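Model it.
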Amino acid sequence: MSNNFKHTDIGLIPVDWEIESLANIQSERPSNINPADYSEEDFEYYSIPAYQDGGLPFKEKGGNIQSNKILLKKGTVLFGKLNPRVEKVWRVGSHTNLRKIGSTEWIPIIPNEGVSTNFLYFVEWSDYVLPKAKQLVSGSTPSRQRVDPTSFYKLKIPLPPLTEQKKIAYVLSKIQQAIEKQEQIIKTTQELKKALMQKLFTEGLPASGGAEPEPQKQTEIGPIPESWEVVSLGYLFNLGIIKFQNGFPCGNWNSQGKGIPQLRPFNITEEGQLNLGEIKYIEIDKEIKKYFLSKGDVLFNNTNSEALLGKTTTFNSDSSKYVLSNHMTIIKILDDKKLSNVYLANYLHKKWYDGLYPSICRRHVNQASVSIDQLKRILIPYPKIDQQNKISEILNNLDQKESISKNKLLNFKQFFSNCLNQLMTGQIRLKDFEFEIEKTQLSLLEKGRRDVLEW
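Modeled.
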């Protein structure tokens, strides 16, 4: 053990750090308030739904709030005690001049002068607090479990000198801002793709070189360019351009890599992309080769809840040893000079956005389904293959941009996790580094969107 570290109740920490319980770093206990007693007053309300809906407090009149709440101060750190498996840590900011109140489902800490609000915020995300709090629960089911506040306040955390606390929080804030930037890029890319899909599938490709856009005609699926046709999937099937194939029946899955990987409806994201991150494997004792997926296959969710029904993507893996769940249908493109798989997959997924499939599905006890016969009746806009390919290229470019941003996001999150661990345990020390840290640390993330563009 290095002479620069010491043994404590919470493990090794630097010799110039202290340890303290969460209870002992509180400057005061928040008081309660009944907002209904101030029915016409507007409050800045820190509720669980507000946290989950973008992390900004709601503005709410006291008369609309029917139970006691916590009266909060700027700089309070809130830990979500309800269902702690869904992690929630929040800082009370200064978004308005209104009085601030919080749900009683939060455990609040107003740090004393020796503790930085931002440091406390990050330490509550660390292994000193978050995983331990998840064990301090009561309640019969996970959704009803709550962290016991008395036990929570007994948790101990490392406490560097205040100047080092601020430096640790500053570095972690910068990484968190980079994470937020990537999340915003992904969200913007997804919104752009949705808008482009609507435009491309109804107006076609934009005119170029000063040319007039192609006139449109009204059809049974809405407006499309005059040169396009409307055809059914059954029509393409009868021409031998596509064929349908059901997936392989589900069996006893395992996550240990034993057997053949089997894709399920959950492997298609809301953005119409294939997620190979969570794969189940199925052990088969019979011939299964004819069920193997081929690169370029279109995958359609044919059976599940209405929320998943109709999600569509393409299979672009080079591996030939994946099979599909029988809750999904394979649409194989037999003539790629007549139909683009990417074009078809994006259009079918767009109809999921549009809510088509609940209107044509068959409903069962706990799920809904779209049969191959129903699939054959679906109508699609059908331009020439060169236009299909150009539309596919545009949408593919957006998918690639999103994929790059998602990879960056994963890297930033892993970097954040590593830095959080090493900074909170003193494996990385910042005491000798100088930063231009603002006096009001709480404003870092509130101004983060501007700062991260310069970072």
